From TrEMBL:
ACT domain span: 3-76
Protein name (Swiss-Prot/TrEMBL): ACT domain-containing protein
Cross-referenced SUPFAM superfamilies: ACT-like (SSF55021)
InterPro entries attached to this UniProt entry: ACT-like_dom_sf, ACT_dom
PROSITE patterns in UniProt: ACT
Leader peptide range in chain numbering: none
């Protein structure tokens, strides 16, 4: 399974032309998500999750997309989990069915929701910042976590270049319940989190807190 992030013309037929090009190299499209509309220049950013049959070189996916006029591949990588906007809805459904666990559910689901690799809930309400919950593959934070709090609103964050475990990740974070508790999410190697993705995380974080309060 592979994830392609593309810039395509924001006009009817563009996505269909890309899908046709991918079909010609026997790629099986599993999910398509419009990540962002860029009305200032008439383009859109789309994520496409595809599978390729044995024997087909992954580079052919990039070549197929680049063969379409005005299409640019800005990210290409292996992708091990399902994703897309339906994952937002699935996360909300799970949170509403178990309100007391809403925040834990968001932490666990956020890597799939945002096409990321790991997520962690950091708690700085005590004498030191602790990792309250983390998904698999989350790196060690060490002293850097204390420099991120308090956090007032959802935002992207600069990766600490001197930190071995975090330097390779692009980061986004949102406060949960207070500015001393935050959800931080990482993608190894990129792509950078877009403004629309930050907004989605902010909305889901606020929703998780609201649902948790009804428990």
């Amino acid at each position: 399974m592979f994830l392609l992030r593309l810039i395509i013309p924001d006009r009817p037929g563009s996505l269909g032309t890309v899908a046709t090009a991918l079909g010609e190299v026997n790629a099986d499209i599993h999910a398509i998500e419009i990540v962002e509309h860029r009305r200032e220049n008439g383009t859109a950013v789309d994520d496409i999750v595809v599978d390729v049959p044995t024997g087909v070189l992954p580079d052919r996916l990039v070549s197929a997309c680049n063969s379409v006029a005005d299409v640019e591949v800005i990210w290409f990588s292996r992708y091990g989990a399902g994703g897309g906007l339906h994952m937002d809805l699935e996360a909300v459904e799970q949170m509403t069915s178990a309100p007391a666990d809403a925040i834990d559910i968001l932490v666990e689901q956020s890597p799939a929701v945002l096409h990321a690799d790991w997520a962690a809930l950091l708690d700085g309400t005590g004498s030191e910042v602790k990792v309250a919950l983390e998904t698999s593959a989350t790196p060690e934070f060490g002293d850097v976590a204390a420099t991120w709090l308090p956090l007032k609103k959802a935002t992207t964050m600069a990766s600490p270049l001197e930190h071995k475990g975090l330097a390779e990740s692009v980061l986004v974070a949102a406060p949960l319940e207070s500015d001393l508790r935050m959800l931080v999410i990482g993608r190894r190697g990129g792509p950078e989190f877009l403004a629309s993705e930050v907004a989605r995380l902010s909305y889901l974080a606020s929703l998780a807190v609201t649902i948790r309060a009804t428990a």
